[in-house]
């Protein structure tokens, strides 16, 4: 397991989250000034310096439940609220999109290009907010400094760690099904044609060498695909042509983005057993999670700001039906963090809880989004 995986996971999932939120804001005809505020607040929270500094520290990946808590807090960083069903769907869409990108990544190092594609698009969302753009650029430079010198083997370990994280998640997504890149059983369809990874050759040739390293024979074979050489390597600089399109916004054209979890329950049965088994590392994970969330700079809506609820379903009725019909195996568990058993050791956790309990009045005006925020208010955790 690579200890350098978490920043790439959070930044790419965050990019997919922002694509979806932007698309739903447009579909629900939210006023431009309010939509811009939502995007600016969420992006400002994600790329907050303290949060990024904490994120880039070498550490193990969190569980999917724990990571969902982080994104739940981030997406509610403005005047917008999501209830539990919409948050479940948002997280499903985020995870399936990034999993698809990892599987199609030409070579492990190109995970960095996928991340840059996400950050480049995010900067387009906030071009009128130079301070937030500067925050994103700072993160880009941190990516270059952290990952620019890693070997191919280290990138392969990062890719393997990500694939383990997403293992057995096979939720059907309408966009991917319509584009015929996902089968009805939730498996992805991997292409057998297209550009080969940079630095490699088009398959179809076998070379034989003698003991002196001299080529003595060539044999050709039919590869079964239509492959081409890439015209250049993608840019790993702050600005430039990334070449590959993975990580760009697939919601730029308005299309429905339904998910179907009915076929995923069977695939998640092993993880359901895993969730009920005691995890000896759970306490340490929650301590790390609390420290990470303590670095979030989340702005609560002021009393004068009218909040609104974002619905990822076409109607409220479909949203409620999704909540009732979601398989138990796919339910994300509430994560609790105990901060009062050992005041000296958990002083930081107590401070975090105090921040979560602040600004109760603005939250009361939210109706259907209250259940989502309740998760954050229940951070009472494990005993020390």
Automatic annotation (TrEMBL):
Q: Which InterPro entries match?
A: OSCP1
Listed GO CC annotations: cytoplasm; plasma membrane
UniProt xrefs under Pfam families: Oscp1
Q: Which residues cross the membrane?
A: none
Q: Which domain of life is it from?
A: Eukaryota
Record-given protein name: Organic solute carrier partner 1
């Amino acid at each position: 397991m690579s200890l350098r995986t978490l920043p790439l996971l959070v930044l790419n999932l965050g990019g997919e989250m922002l694509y979806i939120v932007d698309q739903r804001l447009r579909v629900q005809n939210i006023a431009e000034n309010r939509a811009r505020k939502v995007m600016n607040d969420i992006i400002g929270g994600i790329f907050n310096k303290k949060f990024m500094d904490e994120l880039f520290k070498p550490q193990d990946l969190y569980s999917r439940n724990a990571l969902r808590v982080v994104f739940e807090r981030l997406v509610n960083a403005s005047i917008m609220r999501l209830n539990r069903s919409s948050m479940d769907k948002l997280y499903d869409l985020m995870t399936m999109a990034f999993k698809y990108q990892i599987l199609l990544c030409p070579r492990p190092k190109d995970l960095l290009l996928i991340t840059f594609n996400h950050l480049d698009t995010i900067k387009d969302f906030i071009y009128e907010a130079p301070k937030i753009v500067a925050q994103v650029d700072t993160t880009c430079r941190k990516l270059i400094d952290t990952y620019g010198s890693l070997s191919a083997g280290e990138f392969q370990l990062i890719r393997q760690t990500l694939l383990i994280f997403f293992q057995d998640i096979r939720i059907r997504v309408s966009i991917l099904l319509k584009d015929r890149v996902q089968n009805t059983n939730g498996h992805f369809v991997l292409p057998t044609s297209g550009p080969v990874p940079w630095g490699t050759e088009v398959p179809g040739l076998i070379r034989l060498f003698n003991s002196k390293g001299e080529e003595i024979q060539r044999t050709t074979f039919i590869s079964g695909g239509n492959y081409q050489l890439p015209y250049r390597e993608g840019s790993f600089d702050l600005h430039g042509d990334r070449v590959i399109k993975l990580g760009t916004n697939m919601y730029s054209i308005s299309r429905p983005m339904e998910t179907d979890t009915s076929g995923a329950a069977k695939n998640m049965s092993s993880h359901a057993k895993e969730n009920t088994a005691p995890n000896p590392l759970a306490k340490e994970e929650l301590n790390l999670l609390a420290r990470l969330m303590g670095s979030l700079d989340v702005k609560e809506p002021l009393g004068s700001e009218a909040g609104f609820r974002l619905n990822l379903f076409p109607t409220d009725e479909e949203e409620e039906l999704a909540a009732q019909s979601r398989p138990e195996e796919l339910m994300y568990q509430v994560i609790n963090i105990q901060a009062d058993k050992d005041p000296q050791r958990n002083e930081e956790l107590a401070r975090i809880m105090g921040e979560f309990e602040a600004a109760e009045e603005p939250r009361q005006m939210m109706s259907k989004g209250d259940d989502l925020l309740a998760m954050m208010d229940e951070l009472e955790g494990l005993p020390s």
